[in-house]
Structures are given as C-alpha cells and as structure tokens.
Amino acid sequence: MLSSCALAQNASTSNGNKSGSSSAKIPEVATYELTQTQRQTIDGFGASDAWSMWQIGCWDDSLQTKVADWLFSQDKGIGLSIWRFNAGAGSASQGDSAQINRDTRTEYFDRQKGQRRFLKLAKERGVPTFLAFFNSPPVHLTQNGLATNTGRGGTLNLRPDAYDDFAVYMADMMARAKKEDGIEFDYISPVNEPDGHWNWQGPKQEGTPATNREIARVARLLSTELLKRQLDTKIIINESSDLRCMLGVYEADWQRGNEIQCFWNPDSADTYVGNLPNIAHIHAGHSYWTNTPVLTPAHPDYATTGLYGYRRRLADALSKVGIDFWMSELCIMSNDEEIHGGGGFDFSMEVALYVARVIHYDLTVANARSWQWWRAAGGDYKDGLLRMYVKGERLGRGKGRVEANDVRDSKLLWTLGNFSRFVRPGAVRVEVKGDMSADGLMLSAYRNANGKRVIVAINYSDHPRDIRINAAGKQAAAYRTSDTPGEDLKYIGKVNLKKTTLPARSVTTFVM
Is residue 261 a contact partner of residue 268, using CB atoms and an 8 Å limit? Predict the structure, then answer.
C-alpha cells in the first residue's frame, strides 16, 4: 500500500504522458483508505488580480458581478479564499517610456480603481484572506526610474537611500486600504521572484532581482514600520520563482540561492528573519519549471528531481527549519510541453487536468498550506482562470475584432473549484492509502473545521475507473468537472463510496 502521493507517481510514466498509464495490471476496482494520519492545515486557495482587474473592475456592473461570482461565490462559483492584490509601482503613468508592455503596467495605489473595486467585491462575497504583492518598488524610488530591471544586474532596483521610504510606502498603502476601502491585508509580499535569472529585462513586465541580504533588510524595515502603525499585516517571503532556488543555487548566484537556509536558519545572521514578530513563518514559492518529468519510483532520480523529487526535497528542507510552504503562483510556461506550452488560451480539460496534477503533488508531497494560481483572468495565453475579451482586441487573421468587452469561464476555473470551494481555510489534510497498481488516479482527503470530510479524486486517464473508498460513512455528495458540456463543478448527486465510477479525464469532489 502506498500513500496518495506515491500512488500517483507509480501510476505515471517517465515521459509524463497525459494518461499516466503504466504497464502494471490495472485492478477492476481501485481501493483507497482514509487514514487517521493528519498532515498540514490548509490556509486557502487563491488567484491574483494582476493585469486584468484594472480593466474588468471598470467595465459594466453586470460583467463585474459575473466575474466576482465565478471567482468568489461558494454558491455560484469556485469560492476562492485568498485574493492577491498586485500592488502598483506606477509604471502605467510613464506610458511607453516605462519600457513595459502596456497591459502589464500598473498604477500607483491611489489610481488602481478597478483593482480596488475587486477587493471590495471579494470581501462582499466572503473572501477571508487578502495579500498584497510588489513586483517592483514604486518607480520614484528605483535606481533606474523604472519598474523593470533593464539589465542592471542581480541586485534590488531600489535606491540605496530609499529603503526606509519603501517601507513607509508599503505601510501607507496598508493603512489606506483599511481606511478607504475597508480592506485589511493579512499579508504583504514586498519582493516577488527576486531570484529569477531573467531579471525581467524590459520591455516585458514589472520586476526586479534582489539578493537575500537586500530582501532581509526590506523585511526588517517593513516589520518596524508596520509595528509602529499597529497594523496586523504579516510579511511573507520569498515568492521564489523556482523551487530549486529555495533548495540551493539555481541559475543565479550564491546571493540569491539557498533561500530556506538563508532566511530561516539563525546561523545565517545577515539574512535570518525568523525572529521578526510579524513575519509569517511561511516560505512562498512558485511551481514553475518543476512540473515535469513525471518519473516512476524505479527511476534513479525519482527522489531528487521531477514532479515528485523536487517537492519531496522541499518538504524535507522546510521541516528541518520548522517553516511551512505556500505555493503562491503558477501558470503554464513554455516547458509545459505536455500541453503545448503557454501560448493560446485553453478552455478544455487538457490544461485543467495538468494543473490538477500539480495541485495534487504540491498539496500531498510538498505539503503546501495554500495553492494560488497566477491570475484570475487573462488573454490568449494559458495564464488565466477566465478568458477576458477586450473591445477592439484582434482575434486573429480573418477573425476580426472583439465588438464588446466580455469574459468566459473555463474547465481550469471549475477544476480549481473542486478544491477551493470545498477545502476551506482551517481544513486538515488526511493521508490516503491506495492500490499501487491504479492507473492515472490521484486522491487527496481533507477534514474541514466544521467536520465535513472532502475527497478530491482525479482521473487523468482516457477511460473511466471504478474506485472504492473505505471511510467512515458510505454516502457522499459528488461534484464533477469533466469534458462533458455542463459538468462544471456539477452536483452529480449522492454516491456510494464502496463503489463509484470516475469518468475519463475528470475531477470529482466527494463531500461527506
């Protein structure tokens, strides 16, 4: 018998094909057992308002309502419990001189009308947790006067004399959001993806590298400023761009690597932040670039690399310093070749199942307390839960232009909802044991604070599978997302867990 994480690995081939089929004989009925072994507490599931809500938040009320219901409502949508606010650096006010693509520029906080509107819509629909993150310090404080790095090197794009000013700016924003919008940010992330080797050289998007020493200095000054204002906001770091940067030095240099040891080991005197009274004892990181290959346990690198190996190493490293993990950003990138890379929006289960597999491994192997998609709405790229259409947008050769603003949902949205609507903040993950010969199946289980138990079952394969779940109680309410039209987190009815069928290419949530 294997745990659910090992089970999924055993069920996958070394080249990571979509079915996850193995050559082992497939049992007629795959059997699973909910154990009494408890793992991490879940803080929530989320997405960000980046690059879209500044527009959608200024569209017609009917469109805003539709989007807010899809994202935040536990009745009409997926019930996100974390909303990430892209704090503005002011690049939008610079126009084309910002050296950043128009759609990825941001305003200063006082001009972020659309995004602030969605903060309120999220709160109205019961979202309990808000996080603000900075891709860059505000442009009036940066060394090059821009919110992008323009090849400066691997250090923070912040003037040496402006560290205190940056801390004041962030604390001012927290105070203004509370006073003017009624939003109390639970967390603030002052530096996003500081370890990326690409350094966000324009013209592309806002961003800056930063060394671990620079990040620690920002965190300490921000801590002091928040305490001075009597603000309860917790500081979260490091929004690592790659899990490998947390574990060692990866495609950068020693100053931007080994982040777990640098920030959370007291021996690292220059960079240790674990003693700050308002630091969240969470290391936030992004699952980009580490989602393949999907190796079998027989592979010599199974425990050290690939979808399973990196996450196993991450969980072990964090446990040694007593720090939890948040997976705080992911979308589809060029190396996600199994689903044809990031280009072109995908409404089907192809991307949804691929992402569901990552969610499963991040939760069951890396023990992530939170899982957050990159952005809530996007354009013709695989980075949005929703596809937004902006009036006048060109649809492609021979297809004309968009006549009116609109937003469409996707199977990815509803698949994330199989987790986010039912696994609520405060839920505890419960270990699942299962038949090691199962094919393309992944199950994880949770106990909510209200006592309701939730099982999320993924059938990655191209054929239906019968399963048996041994748990206290036979009956469960089932909700399914699949390629079948209309099965978008659809209530299927009461099922008998002693034998039920998972349709091909589907995600089903059982609520007991």
Answer: yes
The pLDDT score that the predictor gives to residue 196 is 85
Residue 197 has pLDDT above 80, yes or no: no
Question: Under DSSP, is residue 350 helix (H, G, I), strand (E, B) or coil?
Answer: helix
Total-model pTM: 0.94
pLDDT digits (tens, 9 = 90+) for 438-469: 568 999 999 999 999 999 999 999 999 999 99
Is omega for the bond preceding 293 within 30 degrees of 0, making it cis? Answer: yes
On whether the CB atoms of residues 68 and 118 are closer than 8 A, the answer is yes
Amino acid at residue number 173? M
At a CB cut-off of 8 Å and minimum separation 6, what does 338 contact? 16, 17, 18, 292, 354
Q: List, for residues 181-194, the tens digit of each pLDDT value.
A: 999 999 999 999 99
For residues 240 and 311, is the Cβ–Cβ distance under 8 A?
A: no
Q: What is the DSSP string of 90-101?
A: SGGGGGGGG-B-
Amino acid found at 394: R
Instruction: Give the whole-angstrom CA distance, residue 289 versus residue 243.
Output: 9
Neighbours of 399 (CB within 10 A): 8
Contact predicate 387/379, CB 8 Å: yes
Cα–Cα distance measured from residue 131 to residue 225, given in angstroms and rounded to the nearest whole number? 17
How far apart CA 290 and CA 182 sit, in angstroms, is: 38
- Tell whether the model's pLDDT for residue 14 goes beyond 60: no
Spatial contact of 331 and 241, defined as CB atoms under 8 Å apart: no
The answer to whether the CB of 404 falls within 8 A of the CB of 391 is yes
Residues 262, 280, 209, 45, CA torsion sign: positive
Tokens 């307390």 sit on residue: 369
Half-sphere exposure (Cβ direction) of 66: Cα atoms closer than 13 Å: 15
